[in-house]
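Record type: monomer structure entry
Structure origin: computed from sequence
Chain ID: A
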Amino acid sequence: MSQWENKLKQRLLGKTGIKISEIGLGCASFWGKKIFSENAAIAIVHKALEKGVTFFDTGHSYSGGNAEIRLGKALSHLSDKSNLCLSTKAGTRLNKRGQLYKDFSVDWVIESCHRSLKILSIDTLGVFHLHGPNPEDFNDELLSTITNLKQQGKVRALAINSFNLDIIDMAMETGVFDCIMIDYNLMMKGRISLIDKIHKKDIAVLAAAPLAGAFYSNRLFRIRGFKDLWYLARALKNSPNKFIQGRKYKFINKHPTLTGSQIALAYVLDNPKISCAVFGTTDLQHLSDNLNASGISLPIELLDKINNI
């Protein structure tokens, strides 16, 4: 069996002609932090490759600036990365105190692209995102710059990563972007009309947060160490109301053959307009279980029960 023979289902990235695994690995968050074992982090990437993952998403500023560097190390053993689609982001930077700030200047976007190419040891980025741009960032100079990066072969697909509806609308109207990464999961069914709208523009949709933060399970409260405390604290800070909403979905944990996370992923992938569902993990078993959601068709009665909430 070839090292590139995929075991996951593949989908097209919109109209780009790029084929990617329908489930991608998000290389960020605790996975990229220096406090998390580098050997363990690299093992997760290697297992993902073995299982057929070809889409890896990271960002220059993620995990205190270490995530993209760590992904580069994890892939350094590969002499041929041509079948991978590596996705990264520009526009968010870290200052000397480790604080995030926005920089969509032409000089930085170009430098960020070249840094990512070097760190990941590739000639072309699969997807290059503008990370959380503001309205004023959609200026002719920046749009021309990223278009030139694509024409120069530095980038295959241009994207934005934003959860702001106004920004997404602006991005669609530019005619520049090949794909848009939004947050979408079984607790965000209101996004379906937005996905339809993006799809009608011939723009691919990447689904971030497809596991809905696991608010439908009790996993967040299983504290076995600092890592679990970190995830719980982040959830309480960013999405406190979703603990209440998640109770309505606890029934998905009682399926006789599927895990709650597999059902959550399969729900997102049930929408053929989604090119890839991207999740992150720091656990090999969690990774393998979730990747087994590829190709699953959920029973219509289960889909109906989810959709009726």
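Annotation 1: The CA atoms of residues 91 and 108 lie 8 Å apart.
Annotation 2: The chain has one domain: 10-212+274-298.
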